[in-house]
Amino acid sequence: MGLPSRISGLLPALLSSLAAVTVALLAGAMVIVFTGDDPVEAYRALFSGAFGGRRPIAETLVAATPLICGGLAFAVAAKAGMFNIGIEGQLLVAGLASGLVGAYAWNLPASIYLPLGVLSAMAAGGIWGAIPGVLKARFGSHEVITTIMLNYLAERLINYVISTEERFPVDPRSQSTQPVDPEARLPNLLDGTRLHWGFVLALVAAVVLWYVLFRTTLGYRVRAVGLSRGAAAYAGIPWGRTIVLAMVASGVLAGLAGAGQTLGLQGRHINLSAGYGFTAIAVGLVGRNHPVGVVGAGILFGAITSGATRMQNTAGTSKEIVQVLQGLVILSVAAFAAAGHFRLGQRLSARFGGGSAGRASGNDRSSGVGMGPEIEPQPGPPVL
Amino acid sequence: MAHPQQPGADAPPVIEMLGIVKRFPGVVANDGIDLVVLRGEIHALLGENGAGKSTLMNVLFGLYRPDEGVIRVDGKPAAFAGPRQAVGAGLGMVHQHFMLIPRFSVTENVILGAEGNSTLHLDRDAAEQTVGALAEEYGLRVDPRAKLADLPVGMQQRVEILRALYQGSRTLILDEPTALLTPQEVDELYAVLHRLREGGGTIIFITHKLREVAAISDRVTVIRRGKTVGTRITKETTAPELAELMVGREVILRVERPPASPGEPVLVAENLVVTGSRGEPALRGLDLTLRRGEILGICGVEGNGQTELVETLAGLRRPDSGRVRLKDQDVTGQDPIALRRAGLSYIPEDRHNRGLVLDFPLTENVLLGNTEAAAFSRGWRILRGALDAITRRLMRVFDVRAPSPQTHARALSGGNQQKLIIARELHREPDALLAAQPTRGVDVGAIEFVHRQLVRERDQGRGVLLISFDLDEILDLSDRILVLFGGRIVGEFVSGRVSRTELGLRMGGRGEEERGGVAVAD
Ligand SMILES: Nc1ncnc2c1ncn2[C@@H]1O[C@H](COP(=O)(O)OP(=O)(O)O)[C@@H](O)[C@H]1O
Ligand SMILES: [Mg+2]
Questions:
Q1: Which residues, by range, are in coiled-coil regions (chain B) (predicted)?
Q2: I need a surface site. Which of A100, A258, A330, B215 has the fewest CB within 10 A?
Q3: For residue A134, what are the contacts with CB-CB under 8 A and spacing of at least 6?
């Protein structure tokens, strides 16, 4: 094989994601035409609104920051075979925790206060993520149900705290915590923009996650459990502990997103959700649950979000079209992934894997399809 | 000649399949197959797993449409659009996996699909009588009123055959019909097939076992990788010739196995009681002792506690009671990691769901179960260079054919997947090796290789516990043989001093009562 395998393994996924995004943008163009606008003009405005200069780029990255963290959160859970749709709740409790810690104004130096704030967010997110993990490991409760319930619980908890002035440093009238102590804030990254150090933390998190997942025995165990519970058991990898670990990691990453919003962007926790925790699911899916892909997808979704305003102002295209675009990207990526599973993947593995492996040998059957010999491909029963 | 109906060269062809091509995405399952079956013969279709046998029969039966080729039945061109048309033309098929309804009675299953369109009313008594008479005629002894789920596998197969006959089939296709049968049931099946041939029927008998070709067929067509490589008259050919046709090179059919010199016990199970996955008692007080330097074979019909036994010894299941000792350690209830550290290796029977992570590259499959080993990791860090080097070496030494160590396990053939597992498990240099169905679903070439490895391990002083449903494999490899029936060891034999028949009787649970308890023929 010419390419190093690591790249050749990633290449089909990357190509398929790019193709999917292109198809989604084309479909989006058709929608824009139907709404009576000029798609070329709309996309031009969208693009310049997202990347045309220092400010737009900064705004794109500002929007991408929580999406990257949240996408990584989704990815790490997915690697263990867990469908974490509780990122929203994990992100919000984490934001609240760091908002409270910061709002107490404890008179600490930044070198202590800031890490404390970030860690409190990660801890809160981690706990919120651990709960569905433990419930699944111990009682088999499905994580989709429990994470949804924990999302509601997070919302109620925050409502309660934000409106309980006498106990917490909050301001019920503005529906937020008190402003965070300056020593606990994530500093600004680029003068004259809202870009903050949370973005750097997100990138660091992506690198760390990539390393842990693909270079350590810990990540290996998580991936093994996610791909084959039976083989993991055979190897002695404890399933329960591993999925709890992955859910904690997921919650911690979601918590980082919350810390970025609270300690970086807003300077306090505001009881108003932008729904980043849900968009993050799409980011994880579009990024194929790979840290590199998630960073790319996060920036893409960030760009669509931040370019939308310019699109509305200059091209007159309704801002809601952005939701349509995001939806189309998700649909298209899902469709490509499914099709790839059945066709492209098969052709590729027939060409690079099974085909050559089988043909290289004198006596082995070539099985381009991942069909077990024990599972004889049989047609359905005769029509009864 | 024993049977007057046995065809000469002048018997007319019933089935002619010429130049059949059937492609699946990424695979050409049939790549120009010719098959001519004469009236009144038993025609074996021989080929390795994946050679394309089932596909060819599904094409014949109208379940798949061929991409190219001509099919003639009784000299008339036939392109069936579905199984009903094939049945209408006098064909009947007994699938590799039965297609029966467990909750129905034998009669209901037999008449299924042929209830007749005229009446809604189903005359149960008449139907039962017809089915009973048909069963009588062909020696297919089975109670027409029994519920299918209550019947042993051999009986269920008879129901499939009955159904084909009931539908008026004159040509019967059996796809690997012996896979799930005891040797006695196989003999009974042969008798039924002979009876059918005497009655003028034609039979296509699919198999990958040479022994069966010799035992039952008049002629044999060998296919390899989707192509016909030859048709022979069974009496005029030899097993080595057929093996070579099937594999494409010369094959050593019997493993060289010098006498064993067993040493001290290495793996001992005492009075194991284990509950199965469905809550049923699976092992009911099982004892066994595996010594160094021997291959201890465990034979038995599938579902008599084999899976539970292996999984308990491998640490995947906890026994309700009883002990397991590995060397001097009591390892009862320990997890797989501890057992590996204590010197156990395990080739699991299910390589897709246990032995491999199919979507991992070969390197990471070599790492499976080895993450704690010093050769593979420092702390949490995986030593990727070392892992890659070890994988390459194992691929070379164990002849695992794949483009690179980064190839995903899914892309490998069954034989190469199995070799990879064996390479990984032997690399650990274990004291005791559990080999569960180590050659199930792999091709003849790889079987030969696996068998040689097991004997080599034995000769290096390791204890090898071989669990297999393939009686020939047990007889070829074992130094001692234990028969597992109903979750207990019901017989112990020294290899070479026991006949297939004797073993077969024990596997069917017979022979125990007369001797009053556990028999030891030593
Ligand atoms: N429905 C199917 N879709 C894709 N590939 C198939 C299908 N059926 C069989 N194959 C492939 O065709 C080849 C021949 O399979 P099969 O006819 O079942 O072999 P055999 O019965 O000789 O073991 C194998 O490589 C198998 O994986
Ligand atoms: Mg088959």
A1: none
A2: B215
A3: A244
Q: Which pLDDT score is estimated for B9?
A: 57
Mean pLDDT (chain B) is 88
Of A371, A375, A378, the one to substitute when testing ligand 1's pocket (max ligand atoms within 8 A of C-beta) is: A371
B8: alpha, beta or left? (left if phi > 0; alpha if psi -120 to 50):
beta
pLDDT in tens, A44-73: 999 999 999 999 999 999 999 999 999 999
Residue tagged 């240099």 (tokens): B429
Q: Would the pLDDT of B393 be above 80?
A: yes
A368 touches chain B (CB under 8 A): yes
pLDDT value of position A131: 98
C-alpha pair distances (Å), B193 with each of A66, B174, B200, B204: 71, 10, 11, 10
* Interchain contact, A365 vs B51, CB within 8 Å: yes
ipTM of the complex: 0.83
pTM over 0.80: no
Q: Is A358 on the interface with B (CB under 8 A)?
A: yes
| Minimal CA separation from A55 to chain B, in Å | 41
DSSP state of A84: -
Cα–Cα distance measured from residue B109 to residue B107, given in angstroms and rounded to the nearest whole number: 5
Is the shortest distance between the CB of B47 and ligand 1 below 6 Å?
yes
Q: Which of B26, B64, B355 sits opposite A234 (nearest CB)?
A: B355
The ligand 1 atom nearest the CA atom of A376: 18
CB within 8 Å: A234 and B54? no
Give the mutation target among B24, B33, B54, B222 for probing the ligand 1 site: most ligand atoms within 8 A of CB: B24
The kind and range of the H/E element at A75 are helix A54-79
Run of H or E including B91: strand B91-94
Q: What is the pLDDT of residue B42?
A: 96
End-to-end CA distance of chain A: 49
E runs forming strands in B292-335: 295-299, 321-326, 329-330
Does domain B1-90+170-180+195-251 bear CATH number 2.40.50.100? no
Specify whether the CB–CB gap between B45 and B218 falls below 8 A: no
**In this structure, which ligand is nearest to the CA of A369?**
1
Fold assignment, B265-343+430-507: Rossmann fold (3.40.50)
CB A299 within 8 A of CB A61: yes
Which atom of ligand 1 approaches the CA of B49 most closely?
23
Q: B92: nearest CA in chain A?
A: A382
3-state secondary structure of A240: helix
Chain B environment of A359 (Cβ under 8 Å): none
List the domain boundaries for chain B.
Answer: 1-90+170-180+195-251, 99-168, 265-343+430-507
Q: Which of A90, A175, A98 is nearest to A133 (CA)?
A: A90
**Using CB atoms and an 8 Å cut-off, which of residues 164-223 of chain A contact chain B?**
215-218, 220-221, 223
The CATH number for A256's domain is 1.10.3470
Nearest Cα of chain B lies from the Cα of A353 at a distance, in angstroms, of 5
Q: Which residues on adjacent β-strands are paired with residue B36?
A: B16
Q: Grade residue B302 by pLDDT with cuts at 50, 70 and 90.
A: confident
